[in-house]
Amino acid sequence: MSKHHITAASSLLIVLALSSGCSEKHNTNALTTPTDLTRDEVCMLDGMILVDHPGPKGQVIFKNNEQHFFCDTKGLIATLYDQNYKAKIKQAFVQDFGKRKWGSYNDNWIDIKQAFLVMDSSRFGAMGPTLVTFGARADANSFAKEFGGKVLPFSQLNEEKFEAYQKRIRQQLRDTISNISAANNAATHQHN
């Protein structure tokens, strides 16, 4: 073997050793904190740019350290209950609306397990009716007093309650569309 081949082989072994060491280091320093929003973050489900839409957002960190964002808390929670993702999720975060104003994008991320949800308020998020998230029950209660809704700790939400909520808001949206359609038809007939 020539001196050139030995040097090339040694270099290859060093590169392989260093890259495997980096890989191990990456796995031991797993991502566990939320990322602040910029214009670069898009919703995992529909590609919407998060900062272009009002209301609470969410993000997950998967066990493989991939991080994904949600333009609405309903999408995040649906993903937490989805059998295709459930076992792969390491951590999930939502924004604490007790520490931010509607339409502002101060992040104030909290672990969803610590959150209080306000269901059925009059405030709409990026995808219509939303679950507004808070770090403190008192803030959630104040919001519910002003905008309606029911306060529920995330720990008391389960798949059955979430699906009932989703079903209820889908029916409300169908009713709204039906009412708008009926009003448009009535207005059309008045002009004829």
User: How would you describe the oligomerization state of the chains in this entry?
Assistant: single chain
| Overall mean confidence score, pLDDT | 81
**What's the total count of β strands?**
9
Number of structural units classed as domains: 1
**What global shape is seen?**
globular
Largest sheet: 4 strands, antiparallel
Separation of the first and last Cα atoms: 95 Å
Number of helices in the DSSP assignment: 4
Order of helices and strands: HEEHEEEEEEHEH
What share of residues is helical? 40-55%
Structural class: alpha+beta
Strand order of the main beta sheet, please?
A: 2-1-3-4
- Percentage beta strand: 15-25%
Low-confidence stretches: 4-29
Nutshell version of this structure?
By secondary structure, this protein is α+β, with helices and mostly antiparallel strands.
Topology of this structure?
Blueprint (H helix, E strand, L loop, with lengths): L2 H26 L29 E5 L4 E4 L2 H9 L7 E7 L13 E3 L4 E4 L4 E2 L2 E2 L2 E3 L2 H11 L2 E4 L5 H33 L1
Antiparallel strand pairs: 1-2, 1-3, 3-4, 5-8, 5-9, 6-7
